[in-house]
Amino acid sequence: MSERPPISGIGHIIATRRPRKAYDVRMKNGFVSVGVVKAKGPLPPENLSDADLEAAEVKVTVEYSPFDMSRSKISEFHLIEA
User: Fold this and answer.
1) What domains sit in the chain, N to C, each tagged with a CATH number?
2) Buried b (16+ CB within 10 A) or exposed e, 14-24
């Protein structure tokens, strides 16, 4: 049986679950899931606190398993340059 590829999407951080590790992420269609920062993946920007990430609604790219859509892995942080 072949492995199914992850489902990717872009969402916004709306709340912090565990500082620098887990966040609530809202997708464009309103779906909310827990976004977990990968162990070897990108870390949140050092110059922004978790409260700043929520307030700015920083965009993130997430990957969902096709078998469990309640949890996702954050694969990239997108900062909007002012």
Assistant:
1) 7-78 (2.40.50.140)
2) eebeeeeebbb
